[in-house]
Every structure is written in C-alpha cells, then in structure tokens.
Amino acid sequence: MTSILAIEQAVQQLPAHELAEFSQWFAQFNEAAWDAQIEADADAGKLDKLATEALAEYHNGSAREL
What we know:
Strand content: under 5%
Oligomer: single chain
Structural class: mainly alpha
Order of helices and strands: HHH
Largest sheet: none
Number of helices: 3
Shape: elongated
Distance between the termini: 43 Å
C-alpha cells in the first residue's frame, strides 16, 4: 500500500489539469464515503435520537427554517 506521504508528493507534482481532475474525483469519492457512513449509521439506529428530537421540535413549534 502506498503511504500518505507518497500520495501527497504525487499529488503535488500533478499538472494543473490533472490536479483538477483528481480533485473532482476525490470530492466524488469522499461524498460517496460520507453517504455510505450516514446510511450505515441510520441503519444501525445511531440517528434515531436526533430524528426524534428534530420531530419533537417541529411538532411543538420550536423548529425554524434554515
């Protein structure tokens, strides 16, 4: 496996157009990882308390629009 330092060095040496492509790819990769983690947390019930609190605030009128 490549070390983080090697990856950092490789990224620093990318030409601007390849850095832009890599940045776009990494953003999509990171978003997919985040989505997977949120879905896993939801499936495991880790967000249930937050959802219950949010719904209670909505129903008692203390929620506000963002």
